[in-house]
């Protein structure tokens, strides 16, 4: 099968969050299974070019329609971690992809609407006729619209679209100018059953366009699929998703065990697995030394997270003090995009600088992230909402027990040691429902209590998590089943 994945991200060269890991992980799994997979990305000036091998121009003079003229682009090719990647290089005074970052500008909707048109124009002009075009999040939501409104009539009617929703908090709300700039009929498309936003009749919703015009819609966990149809986590698109329920489903993400695997991880001082778990103690000692924690017989509670509202910063803050009160050590690695949140955690860091049981690292450090997973005993994930979450899957592989709020993908992967209806060998952590201090304390307190009073049971929780398979193997098959279903 010939599959083209269009995305604003692909780890490790263009990554702002879990979407980058998704494209890399699923792309690799599909390739391993013998499919021809090509990934198309913007050529950002902020790409991690060291991760791209053999980069060179493969298509010159791609002229992409833009309002009443066209923008000149080149397309470059390079391999990223064995994946075939194409990069759209736009030569325009708008500098669409020359912003020193991936997201965060006022014209993001225009930037990625242009990218969507450029991808479709590249596929058409280069003679590519993929069986499946796999689009991701609002940034490529216009691609299914363009396929059926423009390119199907030009001979691309063979291709089918799978569209994946990664985060309903960002839907690509914008004005009709994105339709005009792509020479689309705004009068025909700005209707309730097409691209008009349900909450703002004057706005275009690019994510809605992707949902309506694609052949199948997925999101990144079964629980999140239910939540965005039946709760306010749908952020206004609940009705649209219910209307298109027959072509909608949740597929749990996987993680890349070539990157996140303590048995082969080069970032940690000792490799280990479920049958060599005592070696984890060397990683715990190395973590303490690396971040300046005291050498004490105490459990280490960790956070590895973006520090924003979605991730539950109020409970993360409370968890630091609660864990210390309960005789634990605490280490945090994360950065806060919100200046107020950043200032608050810098205050806590200053307050804890002399405390031998606490360290806050405000930023992101790949080596330290690996060492934290390997050295910590528990990881705190108190998200307000979590479409899938990779943190809990990574932590479990490293024998680090998750303490998580029961939402989205966390509910699909973390099963409570005390209250789950699953067999004991499937239980792997602690969960709580209420987004309150008491909810967090109840779950974290039970984890700390087990570590202190019943170490053998705590060890078994570690091993249970390590032995569960969260690779891309099963999700990869799910996606192939979807592709085959919509090709019929």
Please give a quick description of this structure:
This protein is α/β, with parallel strands linked by helices. The chain has helices at 18-32, 108-125, 142-151, 177-181, 186-189, 206-213, 222-230, 238-243, 280-291, 313-325, 339-352, 366-375, 391-397, 408-413, 437-453, 455-467, 473-487, and strands spanning 2-6, 36-42, 52-66, 69-80, 83-91, 132-136, 160-165, 173-174, 196-197, 200-205, 216-219, 248-250, 300-304, 329-334, 358-362, 378-381, 401-405, 430-432. It folds into two domains: 2-254 and 473-487, Rossmann fold (3-Layer(aba) Sandwich); 277-467, 3-Layer(aba) Sandwich (Rossmann fold), CATH 3.40.50.2000.
Q: What are the salient characteristics of this protein?
A:
single chain; 488 residues; Rossmann fold; 2 domains; six-stranded parallel sheet; 17 helices; 37% helix
